[in-house]
Specification:
Layout lengths: L1 H13 L2 H43 L7 E14 L2 E13 L4 E9 L2 H14 L2 E2 L12 E5 L2 E7 L6 E2 L3 H9 L4 E7 L3 H12 L5 H8 L3 H5 L6 H10 L3
Parallel strand pairs: 7-8
Antiparallel strand pairs: 1-2, 2-3, 3-4, 5-6, 6-8
């Protein structure tokens, strides 16, 4: 009997310990859950922040100020059973005003979305064009795409941008201050833009020509009876 009494007393004393152990395990489990959620949430929060910062940096091209020009918006309609369904196509030119420019087009059901797509496409296709003194072209050029033909000529300081329509948007975004242009043929903005870029991609600078030919820039500028000192001074003034 004494043994049975001791067994019952031990059982009674041990019985409350089980719930306490369970509560402790639950508390520890909840603690781990909260801690895990907090840590997991913190990690996820930091990940989102990094992605957002990288996205903003990519959109701004490393923090550079970009010039965006909307050149043309075209509306098209499709007749369906319930009526007409409209769509929009946007043509956008993007540049940094320092010798880099690109163009893109996008299509969407709404105008803002089409402009956003065109802008993103233009940023991906930006090209660098060498500029003389940072204000005009190094030499004359011609470009052609389809029925679009354009003539580009360098101009002295103070001339301004003599260009119309889509071509003006390209040179303003590029950072050209003095240029004379002429469009011959179609007035389709898409063909005019492509013809203009065809002419701009053919632009070369004295520095690149000298490197390709293994000569000095002053040797190229000193041809035609020019003074050697003036040629050397002009060569030193060329930055690109």
């Amino acid at each position: 009997m004494a043994d049975e009494t001791n067994i019952e007393a031990v059982a009674v004393e041990a019985a409350p310990a089980a719930p306490e152990g369970g509560e402790q395990r639950e508390a520890r489990g909840r603690g781990r859950g909260r801690g895990g959620n907090d840590r997991g949430g913190g990690d996820r929060g930091r990940g989102r922040g990094d992605r957002e910062r990288r996205g903003r940096g990519g959109d701004d091209e490393g923090g550079e100020e970009l010039i965006e020009k909307l050149v043309h918006i075209n509306r098209v309609s499709k007749t369906v059973k319930g009526g007409k369904r409209f769509g929009f196509a946007a043509l956008v030119v993007v540049g940094d005003g320092k010798g880099r420019v690109g163009f893109g087009h996008g299509k969407a059901r709404e105008v803002p979305e089409a402009i956003t797509k065109a802008t993103a496409s233009a940023k991906k296709k930006m090209v660098r064009v060498p500029l003389k003194e940072g204000r005009t072209l190094h030499h004359d050029g011609k470009g052609r795409f389809g029925a679009g033909k354009v003539n580009l000529r360098s101009a002295p300081a103070g001339t301004g941008i003599i260009a119309g329509g889509p071509m003006r948007a390209v040179f303003e975004s590029l950072g050209v201050a003095d240029v004379v242009t002429k469009s011959v043929g179609t007035s389709n903005p898409y063909n005019m833009i492509r013809a203009t870029f065809d002419a701009l991609t053919e632009q070369t600078s004295p520095k690149s020509v000298a490197q390709r030919r293994g000569k000095k820039v002053s040797d190229l500028l000193g041809r035609g009876g020019a003074n050697v000192a003036e040629a050397e001074a002009a060569a030193e003034a060329i930055t690109e």
